[in-house]
Design goal:
Belongs to the ABC-2 integral membrane protein family. It contains 14 helices and two strands; from the N terminus they run αααααααααααααββα. The chain is an all-alpha fold.
Amino acid sequence: MEGILAIWQRDLTKFFRDRARLIGSFSMPILFLLIFGGGMSGSMETMMAGNMPEGTEGFNYVEFVFPGIVAMTLLMTSIFSAMSVIEDKDFGYMKEILVSPISRVSIAIGKMLGAATIATIQGIILFFLIPFLGLSYNIMALVQVIPFMFLLGCALSGLGLLFASIIRSTQGFQLTVQILVMPMIFLSGALFPVSNMPAWMDVVVKINPVTYGVDVMKKIMIDVENIPAPVLDAMGLNLTVLGQEVTMFAEVLFIAGFAAVLVLFATFSFQRANA
């Protein structure tokens, strides 16, 4: 545990001391909020209005997209934080860790927890934008979603660690991750509903772990119990797999299992790469 906490604390210290990284990490989420939340909200609400039954509440696109923006922040921060593994190899710090009596599993868990903590903190900071966006989420809902944000950050950081253990250069890591991250964002329901999509694309949506993370966050933050089922369908919040509706418990269980499996794969790959 001491080794895990030491690695976790080091990654957090590095993050808060790097002001350029701290400020730059918010540029993409805020840009998406301005473009999709502000510039495209009118057109998206008009388009979605055609799918809404008469007599139901209007579709608030900003309310729909904000949890997706937070999930996108978790995704990008968690995965790109794993690049510190490659940097530690280049500067020789990783050799110091490897000769210490710390297991490979502890190193992977420490890195995963550090990246997940940083991502969760960034997601919480985005909550302070809620009043300026004219939104009114329940305070208890925001508190309840934080533990899941950390769990999702662990799962996504495990994915980043797996790539970081295989790829040897920061340039190759950035290129590979960028190719991976953008489809995961756009095919997760973060920015627009993923219902009524082509069959092959629907398969990609259902195997995308971010899809289930975004769905859980939206169900917690948006008051879905008071929204009619047709509106939920139009918003893409009634996620189904093989014709069966996916429960929130099943989604949380899937994310937890995904995180555990990725940590195991990352540890195995990390052990082989640094043997």
